[in-house]
Amino acid sequence: MTLLRDHDLARAFDHASGAYDRLTALNPGYRAELLRSARRLRLPRDGEGLRVLDLGCGTGASTRALLRAAPRARITAVDASAGMLRRALEKRWPRQVRFLHRTAEETAADDGGPYDAVFAAYLFRNVTDPDQVLGTVRSSLLRPGGRLAVHEYSLSGSAVHRALWRAVCDGVIVPMGSLTGARALYRHLGHSVLGFDTAPAFTDRLARAGFTEVTALPVAGWQTGIVHTFLARNGSSARPEEAR
Ligand SMILES: C[S@@+](CC[C@H](N)C(=O)[O-])C[C@H]1O[C@@H](n2cnc3c(N)ncnc32)[C@H](O)[C@@H]1O
């Protein structure tokens, strides 16, 4: 099983960036489920001045979900792929959204943090050392009491969901990726999901990294048991109203 990492992965996303939005539009529920996960952060809609980080923002689909969940938040969106960021920047954004060309590993609190919330959609399966990135999120990117939402392909652990994922990859995802010339990236997608933590294992990983209030929630539609939203907090709630 060959997985793409670091520069090779960024190059593969650069190459696929032109077709990326068209391909995700074919995935039923892609945007709706991102929005569901962003809303699960329970950010206040009137949260002016709230600072939110989108790690691995790609062409901005997850950034748009955050903006819909918290229309007044100041959002910093970072990605390792210049090509994906270029596509994001072609779209219209309000002034409080900014995009930075950074890897998750390089992102530092002085890039606009510390943040009230961090959102990472389809990122952790792709990083070389998820524990290191989780450690950085907790120790320097999130404020005490801040919340993390990870939206990720992470199988439930049931053989049925694993078989369904294999069938969707072999029958739909890899053939469609091949049509757009991005076969390597879509093969990576298939393999990386099979090799990544199951939902219970990623929940344990978050707890081991020191996060509290860790939960895994399913999404709807065909991705039930295949994609989860993971929610976690950095320590205890620092704001009394959030403790309720
Ligand atoms: C599958 S896309 C998801 C994009 C977006 N979050 C969305 O939901 O549509 C994954 C993104 O993560 C980025 N990525 C992968 N590894 C990264 C890393 N170590 N640091 C920052 N971005 C990374 C890729 O360049 C790609 O744009």
Principal-axes geometry comes out as globular
Cα gyration radius (Å): 17 Å
CATH class of the domain at 27-155 and 197-235: Alpha Beta
User: In angstroms, what separates the terminal alpha carbons?
Assistant: 45 Å
Largest sheet: 7 strands, mixed
In what range is the share of β-strand residues? 15-25%
Q: Structural class per helix/strand content?
A: alpha/beta
Report the strand count: 7
Bound molecules: S-adenosylmethionine
Mean pLDDT: 93
The number of helical segments is 9
CATH superfamily of the domain at 27-155 and 197-235, called what? Vaccinia Virus protein VP39
Helix and strand pattern: HHEHEHEEHEHHHEEH
Can you give a write-up of this model?
With 244 residues, the protein is of the alpha/beta class. It has nine helices and seven strands; from the N terminus they run ααβαβαββαβαααββα. Strand 6 and strand 7 form a beta hairpin. Helix 1 (6-25) packs parallel to helix 4, helix 2 (30-39) crosses helix 3 (61-69) and helix 6 runs antiparallel to helix 7. The longest helix has 21 residues, at 159-179. It is globular and about 45 Å long. It binds S-adenosylmethionine (SAM). Residues 9-10, 13, 34, 56-58, 61-62, 79-81, 84, 103-105, 121-123, 126-127 line the site of S-adenosylmethionine.
